[in-house]
Amino acid sequence: MVRRTAAVAALALSSLAACADAPVSADGATSPGSLNLSKSGNGKSGDNVPEVKTAKTNKKEPGSVDRGRYNITFRYVVPTSPERQAVFEAAAARWEKIIIGDEPSVTGTLPTQLCGGGAPAFTGTIDDVLIDVILTNIDGRGRILGSAGPCFANANNLTLHGTMRFDIADLPTLEARGTFDEVIVHEMGHVLGVGTLWNFRRALRIGTNTPNVAFVGEKAITGYNSVGGAKIPVPVENMFGPGTQNAHWRESTFDNELMTGFLNGSLANPRENPLSRVTAGSMRDLGYRSAMPAEQYKLPEASQIRGSANSSNGANLADTEIDFNVSEELLEVQATVQRADP
Description:
The chain has helices at 82-98, 171-177, 180-192, 218-226, 251-254, 277-286, 328-331; strands at 14-15, 35-37, 51-52, 55-57, 72-76, 106-110, 122-126, 129-136, 146-153, 159-167, 205-206, 214-215, 234-235, 262-263, 322-324, 339-340. With 342 residues, the protein is α/β, with parallel strands linked by helices. A five-stranded mixed beta sheet has the order 1-9-10-8-5. The model is unreliable at 1-51, 306-320 and 326-342 (pLDDT under 50). Residues 1-20 form the signal peptide. Keywords: Signal.
């Protein structure tokens, strides 16, 4: 599939200013030697929504807009090899099989630096989401791996623009262990709203910072029941501290589902990490039109789950799990939102 480039896409409706300049860090990981993908932000609670008058939702879609499907467009801010671009494109294709409905396009200008450093200004039309990809030097090999998150939301309070950054020094390690693609898909999920938009102008997460934190969206609950769970709110991670906690599906319940806080498997013990009907349902609860079949997945038996916090084989990075960590500060972004003049 040939994906349109950002030359025909661009800005607007709501700015999640806490966006993606958070570190993806190895520090504080719960499993020895694992990578802790953390994210920080400036978000605070509240609902102050100042207008951005440089972009508007299109009442009539431009001819360049593909209205028959959901489109993820990448803007490669720095030179990126065709081989690496192909990995990002394949990751987007996984999400485009789950999110299938078109979103309103937006035309306008996105000023520089509104979503952290490194992203230049952009003018044009966005259909349906624009993600800046920045492969850059952060801190050398190890420690900070990268960052990702939403920056602007559309009229439906769904992500319009987001950013993904990766430390170029760490990419060979991810590529060597065969996990770069899964990391991209996971981080793209946070750009699209998993864990980051659950309580953004909606109330889909309850019990935040308690042992019983859960996702209460009807479609996700239906998906949870279909993969072997009960018809109860979906368990959200309640352990491992700020970042992993409150922002992912619960590892002790879901194990290898891709949107838990841990990427399961390794070169020595490869495992698939699917996007389940639970994740697909949660996207519909956010407001996306999603395809419920998603990827093949069933809840594992409790005896089959290997909790990352109890893993002791972390000496070899290639044989450990990656800990995805999204800070709670990014989840409370109401006060940082900007909306375009409708």
